[in-house]
Every structure is written in C-alpha cells, then in structure tokens.
Amino acid sequence: MKALLSKAVGGPDTLVLEDVPSPVAKPGFAVVEVKAVGVNFPDTLIIEDKYQFKPERPFAPGGEISGIVKSVGEGVTNVKPGDRVLGNTGWGGMAEELALEAARLVKIPDEMPFDDAAAFIMTYGTSWHALKDRADLQPGQSLLVLGAAGGVGLAAVELGKAMGAKVIAAASSQEKVDLCISRGAASGVVYPKGPFDRDGQKALAALFKDACGPNGADVIYDAIGDAYAEPALRSIAWEGKYLVVGFAAGEIPKIPLNLALLKGCEIVGVFWGSWVARNPKKHQASVAELMQMYVEGKIKPHVSERFPLSRAAEAIKHLASRKAMGKVVVTVD
Fold first, then answer.
1. Contact indicator for 197, 219 with CB cutoff of 8 Å
2. For residue 60, which of 332, 327, 333, 249 has the smallest C-alpha distance?
3. What is the separation, in whole angstroms, between the first and last Cα of the chain?
4. pLDDT tens digits for the chain (333 residues)?
C-alpha cells in the first residue's frame, strides 16, 4: 500500500509517497481501508516537530480519517469488517490503509459521505468541547470567533448558532466573513494582517469592540493567537470567557494578566485531544450529540477543496498558507 511519509523534519516539500507494508490488526485494533483524510493545522506542525506530540519517523501525517473497516483484531466488538467509520488518529491517516485502536472508531450514518466524515471529528469535536464544556455557552450570549472561516472556526460558528448564541465572525477577508454569515454568523468583521505596532493593536481592539457591541463578547474563541489575542481580549465582556484554542497565526501571544483582572474574565485552555483521552465516556456522548446534529442538518462540514493522496503534500501546504476556507480533504482511491 502507499503512504505519505515524513522521514525528516521539515515542511510539506519533505514528504514522500512510498510503498509500505499493509498493516495487521493486533488485539484491540482494527484495520481501516481509508477513503478520505481531513487536513488540519496540526498536520503542518507535526511534520516540523512543532506539535505537542512527536511520533517516531517515518510516519504519515493525517489526524482524522474515514473509511471502511477491513479487519479487526482479537477482542474488538464495537466495529466489524464492512462498517463505515470515522476515526481520530493523531497521525498516520495519509495512507491507503491504517491500523488503529478500535475504540477510536465511530460508525457513521449511511447518509454521511466519506469526505464529510473525514472533515468532522477534529473540528466539531474541538469546538463542541470548547463551547459546551469549557465556556458553557448559553443562548443569547455573544460569541466572537477569530479565524472564523478555518476548520475549527467555521465549526464554532455553526455550533454557536445551534446553541442559540449571537455569533460575530472575525476573519481576514470579506469573502471569508460572507462564508461565515452563510453558515450562521449574525455579523462579521474583517481584521487586517499583522504584525501590529502599538497603535495598530489599539485600532484592532477598537475594531473588535465595535463588532461586539458596547458590552463586549461573552465568549471569545481564539484559534489564531499571535498579535490578535490581546486586542481581542480587550473586547471581552465583564466576566467573559476567553478560549485559547490554537495559534494558527504563528506566535504564542504574551497576554498582560492585568486585563484578566480588569475584565474579571477567565482565560480558558482548550486541549481537546488530551480531554478525549481523559474522558472517553464524555467524548462518546459528545460524538453522539454531534452526529445527531449532523443528521438533523444543523451542522455540516464545508469541504472547500479535495486533493488525491498523490497530492496530499500540496493539501498541507495549501492549508499552511491560510488561504483555505472550511476543510481541505485528501481522498484515497
């Protein structure tokens, strides 16, 4: 079988498509014939050894997949050969076949195509955990989403709308804001490209404040970080919650903690992968809720582009350019 491998530290151009042995299902594992792979921001980091996890090389990127169960190992009861499934893998997904713990697999509805399934669990799982478990978002609250047209951002827009919040989408172009409004945002704001000097940060803070209204945002969902974080935090409401989801803009920001004091707010970390490992039963319940929302038409991944496995490195490079909207998916024949 073929797999896209990271054999040396580097960007997408260092990845190579090679033939590797087909996997075997060990006890507790299942082998999946991969049909589609979701491309996510961690894929751009893990191949450069900048992610929280550093797998032994060679490895394939690809943290979420969908496909058909080919075989199962001893003791596996939750799936069987022929089942249509999705799975969060961490890495290894960009291959024609993949062996992973069967507990990581979730059966998907017949009406869910494989590209939707591969674009589902990481973005909606992260955003659902952020908004429900970490922020306790309530109907009528205001939610400011930074990087709103990206994978997790657009999921947060849809879920915030479904939860009854007033969603303000912040993105880097009007095209991206328009996409967010079409997916449920009440309004949007286009922010300029950084870096910003002190006056630029003040102007950006004013832009966010105008977008959120006089009371500020009850919840801020920040997946981009860098120079956008402090201006966004200045627009938060009294006793608001600031969700630290990721740093897609590059640098990890340094936040003046006096802002948390002055705003009486909470700065809340969101690490979905670790939460899933620590709370498997709660995760199963969350997945069931999300699947029900999908079946009811309340949420649906926006798959903007598809690349074959032979061009998967291009897919990662495209995502890293921050030009993609919604989800990018690699398809596997």
1. no
2. 332
3. 11
4. 999 999 999 999 999 999 999 999 999 999 999 999 999 989 999 999 988 889 999 999 999 999 999 999 999 999 999 999 999 998 999 999 999 999 999 999 999 999 999 999 999 999 999 999 999 999 999 999 999 999 999 999 999 999 999 999 999 999 999 999 999 999 999 999 888 888 999 999 999 999 999 999 999 999 999 999 999 999 999 999 999 999 888 889 999 999 999 999 999 999 998 999 899 999 999 999 999 999 999 999 999 999 999 999 999 999 888 788 999 999 998
